[in-house]
Amino acid sequence: GVLVFRKQQLSAVAAELERFYWAGIRFADPALGDILITTTLMNVTLPDALDIIAITAGVKVSVRDGSVLIE
């Protein structure tokens, strides 16, 4: 599938990723959810999508026990 985000808050992007990949995503600081990003994810795995989001938003993304943390 293809996910397209244009000037969307990271919190909205995370919510869409949760629905698309059936993953739990949390923010270490809720203010990170206000970061605006623009990106297109075309047929990528969740790890690849998280790498792209991390680079685009300038955040660190880690996965522990099946839960994604954005910090």
The CA-CA distance between the termini, in Å, is 26 Å
Estimate the strand proportion: 35-45%
What structural class is derived from the secondary structure elements? alpha+beta
Count of alpha and pi helical runs: 2
Side by side, the strands of the main sheet go 2-5-4
Order of helices and strands: EHEEHEE
Number of strands: 5
Question: How would you explain this protein's 3D organization?
Answer:
This protein has 71 residues and is α+β, with helices and mostly antiparallel strands. 34% of the residues lie in helices and 38% in strands. It has two helices and five strands. A three-stranded mixed beta sheet has the order 2-5-4, with helices on one face. A two-stranded antiparallel ribbon has the order 1-3. The chain starts with a strand and ends with a strand. The mean pLDDT is 96.
Supply database-style keywords.
71 residues; 3-stranded mixed beta sheet; 2 helices; two-stranded antiparallel sheet; alpha+beta
Give the helix/strand layout.
Layout lengths: L1 E8 H12 L2 E4 L8 E7 L3 H12 L3 E4 L2 E4 L1
Parallel strand pairs: 2-5
Antiparallel strand pairs: 1-3, 4-5
